[in-house]
Amino acid sequence: MRAIILTIGDELTGGHTIDTNSSYLAGRIGEQGIRVSRLETVGDDVKVIARQIEIALGDADLVFVTGGLGPTSDDITKEAVALATGRKMVIDPGLRAQLEARFKRYKSATPAVVDSLASIPENSEIIENRAGAAAGFSIEHGDARIFVMPGVPHEMEAVFVHGILPILRRLPRSEVTITRVLKTTGMSESTIAGKLEPVIDEIEAGLGYLPRPGGVELRLTARGSEDRVMRILSESTRIITAALGERVYSPEGEDIHFVVGRMLIDRGVTIAVAESCTGGLIGHLLTQVPGISAVFDRAIVAYSNSAKTDSLDVPAALIEEHGAVSPEVAEAMARGVRERAGTDIGLSTTGIAGPGGGTEEKPVGLVYFGLAGLEGSETGRMVFRGSREIVKLKAAVHGLDLVRCHLLGRGL
Amino acid sequence: MRAIILTIGDELTGGHTIDTNSSYLAGRIGEQGIRVSRLETVGDDVKVIARQIEIALGDADLVFVTGGLGPTSDDITKEAVALATGRKMVIDPGLRAQLEARFKRYKSATPAVVDSLASIPENSEIIENRAGAAAGFSIEHGDARIFVMPGVPHEMEAVFVHGILPILRRLPRSEVTITRVLKTTGMSESTIAGKLEPVIDEIEAGLGYLPRPGGVELRLTARGSEDRVMRILSESTRIITAALGERVYSPEGEDIHFVVGRMLIDRGVTIAVAESCTGGLIGHLLTQVPGISAVFDRAIVAYSNSAKTDSLDVPAALIEEHGAVSPEVAEAMARGVRERAGTDIGLSTTGIAGPGGGTEEKPVGLVYFGLAGLEGSETGRMVFRGSREIVKLKAAVHGLDLVRCHLLGRGL
After folding, report:
1. Of A32, A218, B32, B305, whose CB has the highest number of CB atoms within 10 Å?
2. A281 with B280: Cβ contact below 8 A
3. Of A29, A72, A208, the CB nearest to B10
4. Is B179–A301 a contact, with Cβ atoms under 8 angstroms apart?
C-alpha cells in the first residue's frame, strides 16, 4: 500500500510558507503502516495540478491532496481533480443546503461563493469539514483512491482525523512499515555510533541518524506483519536505551519540553526560570505543556544588568567583577529566581546568542547555566555553534535537559 | 527558466521532520526571478531518487537537490545522481586531500569515511561547503543543470549562498517572475477584500490571500522584464498600503517582531514585558532581533498569582476581586513591569491559552492586554480561536502590534 501526498499553493512553491501539512499527513499516514513514497508540491495552475494528480494516481494506491478548495479564483484544485479523473463538475444539493444554513448564521457569503463551495467532481464522496466551510471529498479511480482536503492546517486536520483516518484504519493490509523516533541530546552522531557498535548486530530494526539543533534523533524502522514489527521495534528500543542510558530522553519522539514538563507535573516539583540569552524561550517551551501552571511559577527574562540585579538579586558587584556572562552570575540568577519564587528548582541561562557581542575570551555561542535546588546549586558551560536562533534553541534544550537530569538524580 | 526542488530523506516522507529546506530554497530561487514549478520529497531509496531526478531534469531547466550526502549507509544521493545522469562515481583527489586535512585536525574519520565523502559523479563541479564536511556539486546534463547540496539546513544554506547563488545571479534571462509579500494583522480576509474593492482594477500585480495565525498575508506577483516587474510591484504595494493603512505592518514580508524590534531600536524606545498566558513567547520573539538588548530590558513571565504580586506589584486584592484574567490585572501588570524596569513602555498579556481552564464567562482564547506608556495606560481584549500553541502565537502577535500602533501614535 503506497501513498503520495500532494500539497498545492503558490505560497508554497514561492517559499513564503513552510509546508507543515505534508509532514503532518506523512506522520499520521505512516502510523497506519502505509508507506508514503513521495511528497509533492505544485503552484496554483490547474493543468499542472491535474497532470501531477494523474501521475500520482498511476504511481500510488492512495493520493492525498491539500489546498485550493476555497471559493476564490486561486482555488482550482477541484477542477484539477475533475480533469485528472475525467469527471464533470456538479453542484451537490446537500452540500449547498448545508452551506446556505451555515452562511445564514454568519451573514457573510454571496450565492456565487456558496455555489463555488458546493461544486465538486461528480460521484465524489463528500467528507465533512467540522472546522470550516470547504468540505473535503474522495474519489475511487481505477485501483487508486484520492482524498482531497482544504489547505488551512486546522481544517485539513479536522477533515483528516474525522473523515479519512477511519477509512484508512479499515483498509486491509498484510504488511506494515512503522518508524519509531528516539530522541537524544548531549551526544554527537559519532559518539552514539561508537556506543551502539557493540550491540549493532542485535538491533533488528533499520537505524537512521538525524542530527538536529537540540540533539540527534534515531529513527528505527521495521516492516512486516504488525506483530513482528511491534516486537522488533520494542526490542531494538530496549537495546539502544540500554546502551545510551539517560541520553535518550524520549523513546516516543516527544520534544524535550513535553518530557520535562510532564516529569515536573507528575512529581509535583515546582520550577522558576531566570533567562538572559534564551530571552523567554524556555518559558515559552514549558508553557506549551498543558497543565504546566501547577508547577511553573515564573520566568524572569533579565536581559539588562539592572534587571538581573533588581529582579533576581544578582549583586551588581558580581556582574562588575565577572561579567554578566559568567558561571558566577548564572549561579546567582538561578538561586535568585528560586528564592524569589519559592520553588523547588531554579534554572538560569546567560550567554552570547550573537551575531554580535562575542570576544576571544567569550565567543558567540558561549552559554552558562545555573541550576539551584534543595541541596545547593551547580553551573554548566557550553559553546554552541549556529545562528542567533539556533544558539537560543540549543541553549533552551540544554537547560531543559539539565532539569531532566536533576530530576533523574544525576545532578549537572 | 523553470526550477524543481527535490529534498531527500526517510525522515521527511515519514513525517518526523518538517522540510524547511524546500521553502528556503524556493524563496531564494524565486527572488532571482526563476519560477519554481514543483517541490518534491522522496525517501532514501537510490532507484526512486534516480527516477525522480531524471523526470525533474526533463521537466525543468534547473534542479536543486538536498540531503543524503553524508558518509553513512543511508546517504545515497550521489549514487542516484550518477545513475540518473549516466556517470561513474570517482574519488576526487583534491576533495580527498581537503577532507584529510580537515579530519586530521578533528581526529575523527576513518579512511572509508573520507573516501565516501570524496566520491562524486565524474566531471562534477565541486561546490565548497564552509559549514561541514559534505561538499555540494553541480552537473550540466543536456539543457538542464543539477545542483546537489547537503540536507543539514545550515550546511545547505552555506553551500547555496556561497556556491550556487552567484551562479544563479549570472544566468541570462529575459523574463522574471517576482512575488512580494505584504503582511497585515487585525483584519480578516473578507474585510481586506472589501477595502481593496474600490481600487482592485488599479492593482496590476496578481493578488493572493493567505490567512495565517497572526494575520492575513497578501502575495503580489508580477511577470515580465525586471524593470516592468519592479514597477508593477511597487505601484501595487503603494495602492494596497494606501487602502489598508497601518494594518499593513510589513510591505517586505518581515515578521512582526523584527518590524517592532527595529522600530524600538531606531527610536531608542525602551520596553519591558509582563507575560502570563504567552509564557515568554513575546520575550523570545523580541530577543530574536539582533541588537535588541539596547532597548529590551526584561520580560517577567508571571504565571502564578504570587509571581504577579511580588514580581510585578499587582495587588493581591485586585486579583482576588477581578481574577487574574481581567483588564484590571492586565493594566496593573503593564504598569508594574514598566515601573520596575524604568522603561518607556510596559506591555502585558493575561489570558486562557487552553485547552483547559475556560468558563462560560471567560472562555479559552480570551486574552487581555495592557500597554503602559508615558501618558498613562490602556487595555485591550481579544478572543482567539485555536490550539494552545495558536492562541499563544496570536496573542504574542497582537501584543507586538499594540506596541507598533503605540509607536505610530495611535494608542490602542
Report:
1. A218
2. yes
3. A208
4. no
Distance CA A367, CA B106 (A): 23
Which residues touch B134 (CB under 8 Å, ≥6 apart)?
B69, B70, B71, B117, B150, B155
pLDDT tens-digit series, residues B184-197: 999 888 889 889 98
Q: Report yes or no: A132 at the B interface, CB cutoff 8 Å.
A: no
pLDDT digits (tens, 9 = 90+) for A372-394: 998 899 999 999 988 899 999 99
Of B11, B179, B217, the CB nearest to A208: B11
Answer whether CATH 1.10.600.10 is correct for domain B256-407. Answer: no
Nearest Cα of chain B lies from the Cα of A35 at a distance, in angstroms, of 8
Mean pLDDT for B384-407 is 94
Single-letter residue type at A307: A
Q: Touching check for A297 and chain B: CB below 8 Å? A: yes
Q: Does B10 touch chain A (CB under 8 A)?
A: yes
C-alpha cell at B278: 504567552
CATH of domain B176-250: 3.30.70.2860
Q: How far apart are CA A111 and CA B183, in angstroms?
A: 30
- A39-58 pLDDT, tens digit per residue, is 999 999 999 999 999 999 99
If contacts are CB pairs under 8 Å, which of residues 247-266 in chain B contact chain A?
A: 253
Range of lowest pLDDT (A220-224, A403-407, B37-41, B58-62): A220-224
H-assigned helices in B298-387: 305-312, 316-322, 327-341
Residues 6+ apart with CB under 8 A from B153: B20, B21, B24
> Residue A14 and residue B179: Cβ atoms within 8 Å?
yes
The A residues from 301 to 360 touching B (CB cutoff 8 Å) are 301-304, 306-307, 310-311, 340-342, 353-357
β-bridge mates for residue A347, sequence order: A273, A371
Domain boundaries, chain A: 2-170, 176-250, 256-407
CATH number for the A2-170 domain, one of 3.30.1850.10, 3.40.50.280, 3.40.50.720, 3.40.980.10? 3.40.980.10
Q: For the segment B262-289, what is each residue's pLDDT rounded down to a tens digit?
A: 999 999 999 999 999 999 999 999 999 9
Distance CA A153, CA B390 (A): 11
Collapse the DSSP code of B349 into the 3-class scheme (helix H, G, I; strand E, B; otherwise coil) and give the result.
strand
Q: In whole angstroms, give the CA distance from residue B209 to residue A63.
A: 26
**What is the per-residue pLDDT for B344?**
97
* pTM for the full predicted model: 0.81
User: Given an 8 Å threshold on Cβ–Cβ distance, is A11 in contact with B36?
Assistant: no
Specify the pLDDT at position A412. 42
Beta strand B62-66 with B144-149: parallel, antiparallel or unpaired?
parallel
Q: Is residue B176 within a helix (H) or strand (E), and if so which, with residue range?
A: strand B176-184
More confident residue, A229 or A1: A229
3-state SS string for A200-218: HHHCCCEEEEEEECCEEEE
d(CA A175, CA A152): 32
8 Å CB contact between B88 and B122: yes
Interface predicted TM-score of the whole assembly (ipTM), two decimals: 0.80
